[in-house]
Specification:
about 475 residues, FAD/NAD(P)-binding domain, five-stranded parallel β-sheet, 12 helices, about 25% strand, globular, oxidoreductase, cytoplasm, Dihydrolipoyl dehydrogenase
């Protein structure tokens, strides 16, 4: 077999494996390099998302949500369940089984589409050559017409809280606890911190979240963020803003966390501490000095809007480049790049990438927030509808939260779509589709939604943008 390919992809996460499959489907001879190795020495595909990120965390979120629902909320619905307990070992087994099934599925897709998997660590050399070093340290060089870098990201370490022996862990370690910690600390009230904190809080941990910023979820529309914060606090998540961690120590099987807040110096004692302060791009030792690819000051690979780097024929996608660190964004960029290599001219619409926090209630959004539009001086109008007035949400015992639609004051075009509530991750897709097609709020208002559904809240919020909501009182128009 020749060692020359049309496309070599470095990294087999949601960006890399999708790019490799798409490139192969387009008739390009494609290889995909991945270093991840199982305990028995075999290559593992799927990257962070499938192995220690999106998928395992969602498995634990689902199980913990069902457990909490059974323990705390079934009785009020007439279901009597006694002696409900959580078997952490079995829960972890199920999580691992789902991961194994999905990663194995990618290997089958590679085979079906003719993608060659290369097991080892990839490094980009000059002239689109890729050096692959296997686990024994043996290196082999491959040539490519095009190289797609999709090496992803890893958790950021912070000096005041170095990882330690299962006591202080990152997001990966937080998916591996073998029992429910009595007291759990989380540094960072972002997406990962909230999701992992939620899992263990539902299972019985007393959870304290320390967040250095003074705004809760600053990237989220603040009406939605405030509603979510109220719900999380009600569930027992103790979220402290303006709390900067200054040091940690482990003594007698306890973690001591020192932090400063508005009241001065504080100390928190917990059984486990999760560090979830964000992620950084995996670019260490990735690029030879003469590769022609440039990094910005934060270690991200510099690319244009089509994910092309400064080196001809070299592309980069996903967490390793600008934009949100989201699996679906990486996949879309992977498809775009493969199509462009094949001679087509697609673009990713970065204005229509949805964001989701898989807590309960879920938080999801696409487009602009009210705060962004205010700061840009744009004239806009808003329609909101609470799930408390939605029959299906009430029937499901999940009537917290709201749908919020923001539209341009003059054109009525939808600029932002925000949801906090049940199945927000699914509902937000309606906003994505609407915005992708340039819909107005009136377009959604004139659409017939099935009754009773959660999606009727979208209909009512769209009606509310122009003061026509039926099932909630409308804002009085200014005279």
């Amino acid at each position: 077999m020749s060692d020359k390919y049309d496309v070599i992809v470095i990294g087999a996460g949601p960006g890399g494996y999708v790019a490799a499959i798409k490139a192969a489907q387009l008739g390009l001879k494609t290889a995909c390099v991945e270093n991840w190795t199982s305990d028995d020495g075999k290559q593992v595909l799927g990257g962070t998302c499938l192995n220690v990120g999106c998928i395992p965390s969602k498995a634990l979120l689902e199980i913990s949500h069902k457990f909490e629902e059974t323990r705390d909320h079934y009785a009020e619905q007439g279901i009597e369940a006694t002696g409900v307990d959580i078997n952490v070992g079995k829960m972890m087994e199920r999580k691992d089984g789902i991961v194994k099934q999905l990663t194995g599925g990618i290997a089958q897709l590679f085979k079906a589409n003719g993608v060659t998997p290369l097991h080892g660590r990839g490094r980009l050399l000059a002239n689109r050559q890729v050096e692959v070093t296997d686990n024994d340290g043996k290196a082999k060089t491959y040539e490519a017409e095009n190289v797609i870098i999709a090496t992803g990201s890893n958790p950021i370490d912070i000096p005041p809280a170095p990882l330690k022996d299962g006591f202080i862990v990152d997001s990966e370690g937080a998916l591996e606890f073998d029992e429910v910690p009595k007291r759990l600390g989380v540094i960072g009230a972002g997406v990962i911190g909230l999701e992992l904190g939620s899992v263990w809080a539902r299972l019985g941990s007393e959870v304290t979240v320390l967040e250095a910023q003074d705004t809760f979820l600053p990237a989220v529309d603040q009406q939605v963020a405030k509603d979510a914060l109220k719900q999380f606090k009600k569930q027992g998540l103790n979220i402290n803003l303006k709390a900067r961690v200054t040091g940690t120590s482990v003594k007698r099987n306890l973690v001591y966390v020192n932090y400063e807040d508005t009241k001065g110096e504080q100390e928190l004692k917990v059984d486990k501490l999760i560090v979830a302060v964000g992620r950084r791009p995996n670019t260490d030792n990735l690029l030879a000095a003469d590769s022609g690819v440039n990094l910005d000051e934060r270690g991200f690979i510099f690319v244009d809007e089509t994910c092309s780097t400064d080196a001809p024929g070299v592309w980069a996608i996903g967490d390793v480049v600008r934009g949100p660190m989201l699996a679906h964004k990486a996949s879309e960029e992977g498809v775009m790049v493969a199509e462009r290599i094949a001679g087509h001219k697609p673009q990713v619409n970065y204005d229509c990438i949805p964001n989701v926090i898989y807590t309960a209630p879920e938080v999801a959004w696409v487009g602009k927030t009210e705060e962004q539009l205010k700061s840009e001086g744009e004239a806009y109008k808003v329609g909101t509808f609470p799930f408390a007035a939605n029959g299906r949400a009430m029937a499901a015992n999940a009537a917290s939260g709201l749908v919020k639609i923001i539209a341009d004051e003059k054109t009525d075009r939808i600029l932002g779509f925000h949801v906090v509530g049940p199945q927000a991750s699914e509902i937000v897709a309606q906003g994505v589709i609407a915005m992708e097609f340039g819909s107005t709020a009136e377009d959604l208002a004139l659409t017939c939604f099935a009754h009773p559904t959660l999606s009727e809240s979208v209909h009512e919020a769209a009606l509310g943008v122009n003061g026509g909501a039926i099932h909630v009182a409308n804002r009085r128009k200014k005279k």
